[in-house]
Design goal:
331 residues, 11 strands, alpha/beta, 9 helices, five-stranded mixed β-sheet, flat, single chain
Length: 331
Amino acid sequence: MDTIVALATSRGRAGVAVVRVSGPRAWEVCKKLTGRVPQPRRTALCKLSDRQGEPIDEALVLVFDAGGSFTGERVVEFQTHGSPAIIAALIREILRIEGVRAAEAGEFTRRAFEAGKLSLTEVEGLADLLEAETEAQRKLAQRIFDGTAARLLESWRDDLLQSVSMLEASIDFSDEEIPDDLSTHIRAPLIRVQTAIEQQIAGSAASERIREGFEVAIVGAVNAGKSTLLNALAGREAAITSERAGTTRDVIEVRMDLAGLPVTILDTAGLRESDDLVERAGVARALERAESADLRVILLSSGVMPDGVTPREGDLLVHGKRDLGPPPSGT
């Protein structure tokens, strides 16, 4: 099997970067760069040099033996300074060593799975954990990564095996005395599994929304204050505001964390009849995105519902520009 190398931390400048090497020649890589192989699982401060003896950096080096690493193989991690030049020089020098190649996307995790270090559910949880942007996403991913899902599946497997074994016993020993309640022992595990699966399906929609995020569309007539509301929620000038009607022509999206939930706020074009082809296209797109949004905030202008919008259950009806005066009477 090839020995692979890759940057394990994000690209760009940082205080520290981690370059990981995994495979049968990982310790050889370490010795060529540092002149020694530190004791496994003990951090060592080492000078990294190229084949000409020119210094690359001074780094903390961690060595893991086969069976005791993330991938199950021999692994070396170089914790260097996070300069792009240092990272490039180090990886370039490692790739010069025979039998070492650049890792493919996700290859470290794939090797961990193949070595039995991670289950399929844990791999999925790890992917979600790395992509988590909010606290709710982190907690959801952590429950999968720490084996909660795997333990649930294992309990289903145990129940199904119990039911199958009871059924086989009733067939194999049909000529002998069998307890009258054996059918209950066959059905009960199946009912437990069916109930648990139905509960998981019922909750899957909520989990999917946490993973993918929620969309909130702000809709209203021109100059109703949609962009101003978006900027207030975002805490920055995400959209251009102007006294001129029809300033927003396309859908503006702002991703944010609201109470730990991933939410995308959509500022849409003002809804009105227009002869301008670009503005008409913006209005059509606004109505389309608003229709598919999880929540719609409808800004009323002078208490009037904007053109083309039919209120539905769950919509938030808000009077725009309340600071300029009270809402119309009767609204």
